[in-house]
């Protein structure tokens, strides 16, 4: 019914950068996502498209939203979420020497393998019972959340390898969670987080794929056992990954069919469950998996799901390719589909808090664009409030990404184990420094203390509240969000319940009428804005317009009348519903260029701002500075489809005649009326 054709399929994939989700974000591997320039063009209407549904549904226009969190680190283990479960594997290099690799667990696969089915299952049953409790589900519901995403492993439905016996009781635990979600009114997205042979090489896939253990001698005295993962990371779910060419010479149809069989079993088992809202067939398949085989897998899984549970939402991860060209016309016209994009700030470069707040607001337009061009409801299924990589073991047990963390992390006493003091290895010995075995990076408990993220000092509360509100605001431009994770042992910035308790989140997270609705409309002029202005591209016009972002900075500073705010950039907003107006009697607004901008100017004409009032739609030109470039710019914006609503005001550097100035005023007025007459407002 859903079996793939066997045989050899030569697939060579060019190396693409990875991402957490949207273009411009940085992924868990610390790599910037950029849209490749050579992606296939969009199909023409008369060209064959194998991924079309006859219903012709416009899915992005469906009126639904999700808000909630993930029950991560539960049925699929992640050492950084529950380090107490993995302290028992510290010091194995000292105890076992060259055999340390046989006694060290760093993911679900090796946890079962190292401890064996009986011992591992005993610990897991205690872990399952104490990590997700009724009080947690009740607390999530009390925040106003509507949904939870529950990561599961494929081994729960067709056990294999070390999971046989080790995972006994996991499905009963899932049934317990589903019953609790039904009791408290939460809907569930089942997420196949881990598949056989790993879809991304991360520990969250069940197996940190390809770990090499090595014994080294230090200055000729003594030996140490270390391991390598990040330089060798591979994912063999879709086929045997060739590390030297970053490609899949052939697709493993048997393995993909295995996953489709798992999906079939899940759908048959839970189709009538009142709490299940949807299914995600695989979490975070990495960017090296060829896009067409991935699409074919999604297409097959969609029809398996739709046949038995047509009311479920079918949610597909973007495969670390969160840009429209990767998904042109895919599943065109199909109902009950959505795309999941994971957006994290934790792997970005360090910076002041305003840089993270600006990024948070910039996601809004990217999500809107994806939904509009791809016709795919976008859910941000994972995000957090972390702005650094300090969380202990975030990049793997006793390991770290090369070059991470990029800041000096803070330390706190390692917390009491959530499973009780009888848990082996708890607490870490406070008399010991960092313990091995070590990966190629450093992260771990030291003298009884564990690393956590850097705080924002006296601004911590306001910074975290603003960061939460701005991200929620952006993600609600799509079809909602689910925070990662519902709780952690160490890090509040990764804990939904702790963040809510600290009032970083709104009182009711599912209400878009609260403070998050205006989160990206707040402005402040800061010294850094003027400094950032020096790096902006000016040319013959001032590029203030960046669609739907919180603000943009010109190569200029603003003057209001004769007052000059020292080192203050121009802040501009794009409110969705209630645009601010430029009050009558506003003083003349002029711009003073920075030195860097002046050096690039070919004209000595001093420009002014052309401001449009929302009340009347009238346009006021304080000086004749507009040129034909404005008309061309307005036409270009209109051609982008839907973006014209963001055109509010523009100033050009060209020296023009009175006639040209009148033309520019008319063009700006027309564009303003098309966009509900919104204004730039100085702050």
Automatic annotation (TrEMBL):
Gene Ontology terms describing biological process: glucan catabolic process
Recorded GO MF terms: beta-glucosidase activity
UniProt keyword terms in alphabetical order: Glycosidase, Hydrolase, Membrane, Signal, Transmembrane, Transmembrane helix
Cited InterPro entries: GH (IPR017853), Glyco_hydro_5 (IPR001547), Glycosyl_hydrolase_5 (IPR050386)
Species annotation: Prymnesium parvum (Toxic golden alga)
Superkingdom of the organism of origin: Eukaryota
Glycoside hydrolase family domain boundaries: 125-386
Signal peptide: 1-21
Keyword Lipid biosynthesis attributed: no
Entry's family note: Belongs to the glycosyl hydrolase 5 (cellulase A) family.
A Gene Ontology term for the protein's cellular component: extracellular region
TM segment ranges: 624-643
Entry protein name: Glycoside hydrolase family 5 domain-containing protein
